[in-house]
Design goal:
This protein is of the alpha+beta class. The protein is built from seven helices and twelve strands. The protein binds biotin (BTN).
Amino acid sequence: MSEPMALYLKRSLSPKALTAQRGALPASGEWVVELHESLPSTQARAKELGLAGTPRAIVAAACQTEGRGRRGRRWESPEGGLYFSLLYRPRLTSSDLPLLSLAAALAVEAAITTTAGLSVELKWPNDVLKDDLKVCGILSEAVFRDGIFCVTGLGMNLVTPSGLLPPEVGRRAGALFESLPPSETVGALWTATVLHFEGRLEQLEDGRKALLLEDYRKKCASIGRIVRVTSGGEEVAGLCLGVGEEGELLVRTEDGPRSFRVGDVIHAALG
Ligand code: BTN
């Protein structure tokens, strides 16, 4: 990385290009976009904006010092990644909120495929894998304050930051590119992710959740695999049968069928 990552991302992420590609402005309004060199966490900043009443915002950073992952974990966020959080106010009932994570995973998959021409897989609930290594993590959180607002954070590993990840993370982490691609590629990836996510959000808000689930089931590589699920302090193994109507993972175990609303999944190696 010869050019500082913050400058590279500033050249890559263009709020103007995002607006131009959205066509007619949806009723939900414009995104306020903030680009930062470094932040403790884009998730925390987006929540701050939400609490201050901002309707919609995208907060991006070239690195984070206190990046947050799912289930209270830390998300290592060195330079070489694209870290951003979307703040929005979904018109959804709380039972549909878990589907936002699946919506984000579908958006990332579509954006990566169309703009970078790479093939990636989804691991339930919302990890994006390339060659079995995690290249993007997604954290969707809801805040109930004068209605609901949500913050969906995405951490995309663009390139592998050599030696910057602790070994336990490094072993499972991959990267989308071998070296930083032209800034246009990352710009297109970011714009497409946001636009696809907006499309999925509209799909949910318009009551077309069945279509979203159908698409997710097609893309989810966990289905049909032997999986190990860690959830609520227990670890369960079995055959993943599918994803239910509320986004839950359905697993056939030795003790009978089980469903999981939260958890971590490991795919068993293919024989
Ligand atoms: C996971 O555990 O897989 C989810 C990781 C989500 C990381 C992203 S990076 C941008 C946003 N800011 C954060 O602090 N976390 C999310």
